[in-house]
Amino acid sequence: MEQSSSSTVATIDENLLSDDDINNRKMTDIITSLRAKSPWESDGEKTQQINKSIIEFICADIQPLSVVDNIGFKRLMTIALPKYNLPSRFFFTNNMLPKIYEKVEARVKKELNIANFVSITCDTWSSRDGAHSLLSVTGHYIIDGIAKFIVLGAKPIKGRHTAAELKELLRFVLNNFEIEEKIFLIVRDSAEVMIKVANDLGFKSIDCFAHKLNLVFLICPIGFYNFQSIWDGMRIISDENNLKCLIERIKKFVRKLRKSKIQRNEFENIQKIIELPQLILIKDSEVRWSSTFDMLDRFISNRQAISLLSAKDPSLPKFSSDDWAVLLTLKQILLPIYKATNELQKRSTSISSIIPLFKLVCFSLEKTGELMNVKKSILEGLKKRMGEKFDASGSLKRLAWEDNRELVLSTIIDPRFKLSPYLPNERHLEYTNWLIEEAEKVSGIRDQQLDEENVEQELDAPQGMESLAAEFEENMASSVESLLVAPLLSPSELNVRQRAEVEVNDYLHTKKLPLGADPFSYWFSQNAIKWPMLSKLSTKLLSAPASSSESERVFSTTGLIVSNLRKSLKVENVEKLLFLHHNMKIFNFDYE
Question: Does the keyword Disulfide bond apply (predicted)?
Fold first, then answer.
């Protein structure tokens, strides 16, 4: 009834219209219909938005630029967006990729312009076929009490990896982002060429401490591969308890189980019967000693299932009760080093943690127990890697890190560590003067905008290290810091030097924070108002990461970008794709 009434009204309205009005209405309907079916303009807002989203999808998800030519992708776009004309890969390669790169690069420059200090990490990478070689550079800085990082570049290396070539590439990156005058420290591997690059550019640099720990387990005759320094630290192991043979038998067991589906199924059945988690045994890697620890840890946790399977299958290696006892002891020895390695590779860990973690690892190795010769040799290797200084008689005088201002000062300005018990007592006053001198130097640097609210946050405490740290601090308790006496003058009556002394002594007299506290947010807001000179200095001393892992992470995606399907990809485009892959996600795609 309603429909009939509606039709009648429409007919009456139409009868009231002139012929011209009726024709105009019909023409309007035709135009509207045609517009609904016609494609969007190539330079229209909607088209540009989708073009941008597609190149972001390619970069963020490591897709080949040729994905836009794939039949499945074309079909998807036709169904989802029938009015969108999908351009070819050449449009995205030659137009969209450079366009988005320029925008993200500008966003990075804007971000770095705010930072007072920047530290960088560097690493090199080459593809297996040698067609691509890159130098990665990441920037690390602190803004508003937050530690940040950015990928500055993955520059193509043309020719040999000489110090001269790498120096010019690094200089180009620093000049491009206008941060050469802001550089505090370069964190690099211990290769001579990278040391020379830093020296030639006039920058202070430091070895990646995670590499140092890794090297303590690398050239080791126990099967931690031909890496480079459990040879220093574990020379004895191949003779004591025949550990090399034991590790090799574990590797053989894991290899056989992973290759044989029948044996693997039998192993899983045993795990199920004895109610163990059905986790496959881990194969170690030739590049990370920690993967060998993971292999041992998983192996030990499946001891019962392994013993039952090896008893049934004569082709598998056998393990005695003595073997298991040695493995358990070895795991206990290596566990603190494993945890320290993982802590150092965290994005939030700065160089301020290097000395404390080194001291905690040494403390754990010096404790009495079984396999003391193994502990001693690891300890010797670790101290050697940290640098030893001897007096004229050849006796060990001290470790080189004790004279490294960057390491020492970053430790002191970290409110979790300060002076005791991580730094030698006899040098506390000397180190305090170092901190006062550095605070004076930054007094003229502009302030970052402060938030009046206290924004102290927490980080994840180094897992399993809290109890070790508490035990260490109790054993090394010292009252040296009580010798520091803060001046009684008010800040308004003091010159720059005196203000620095007041701030440093006041700070050192406050209670230390727990290991899980965030040292970056500590120096922002209220403490920045209380100790402005030290707050500025903290953005310098805490900016450097403890490891060059961030540069290595850049290359973890390079192999995916330079895949067999994309061998013809120009190295310049590899650089752009890497730069965008990391930085777009850092900015949460908000870069315009």
Answer: no
DSSP 525-576: THHHHHSHHHHHHHHHHTSSBSSSHHHHHHHHTHHHHS-GGGTT--HHHHHH
Angle at 544 between CA 540 and CA 549, to 5 degrees: 165
Q: In the structure encoding, which two tokens stand for residue 31, read together? A: 């135009």
Residues 6+ away with beta carbon under 8 Å from 377: 233, 234, 235, 236, 237
Three-state SS at 64: coil
149: β partners:
140
Predicted pLDDT at 315:
92
**Residue 428, CA distances (Å) to 399, 405, 435 in order:** 16, 13, 11
User: What residue spans define the domains of the chain?
Assistant: 1-38, 98-208+548-586, 211-403, 406-541
* Helix locations, 423-565, DSSP H: 428-441, 466-475, 496-509, 519-522, 526-530, 532-541, 549-556, 558-561
The gap from C-alpha 319 to its chain's centroid, in whole angstroms, comes to 38
Q: Phi and psi at residue 28, in whole multiples of 5°?
A: -60, -40
Which residue reads 């206990």 in tokens? 332
The answer to whether the CB of 156 falls within 8 A of the CB of 133 is yes
**DSSP 3-state assignment of 76?**
helix
> Given 3.40.50, 3.30.420, 2.60.40, 2.30.30, which CATH number is that of 98-208+548-586?
3.30.420
Q: What is the mean pLDDT of each run of 10 residues along the chain (592 residues)?
A: 49 56 61 63 92 96 92 94 94 96 97 96 81 88 95 89 93 96 93 92 90 62 39 45 80 93 95 94 79 92 96 93 90 87 87 92 81 76 72 62 92 94 92 95 62 48 64 59 48 77 95 91 89 96 92 73 61 89 95 90
pLDDT value at residue 488: 47
CA distances from 457 to 189, 428, 518, 536, 587 (A): 31, 28, 5, 19, 21
Give the pLDDT of residue 290.
80
What are the strands of the beta sheet with 183-188, ordered from one edge? Answer: 146-156, 133-143, 118-126, 183-188, 205-207
DSSP 8-class letter at 418: S
Give the side-chain half-sphere CA count within 13 A for 190. Answer: 14
Relative to beta strand 388-390, strand 396-399 is antiparallel
- Note the pLDDT of residue 474: 66
In terms of residues, how long is the chain?
592
pTM over 0.85: no
Strand ranges for 106-182 from DSSP E: 118-126, 133-143, 146-156
Closest CA to 204 of 374, 6, 405: 405
Per residue, the 3-state secondary structure of 285-302, as one string, reads: CCCCHHHHHHHHHHHHHC
CA max distance for the chain: 118
Token output for 248: 């090799």
Contact 111, 182 (CB under 8 A): no
Contacts of residue 270, Cβ cutoff 8 Å, sequence gap at least 6: 276, 305, 308, 309
Cβ 535 vs Cβ 556: under 8 Å: no
Task: For residue 388, give the H/E element and its range.
Answer: strand 388-390
Question: If DSSP codes are grouped into helix, strand and coil, which group holds residue 462?
Answer: coil
- Three-state SS for 160-179 is CCCHHHHHHHHHHHHHHCCC
pLDDT of residue 222: 41
* pLDDT of 368: 66
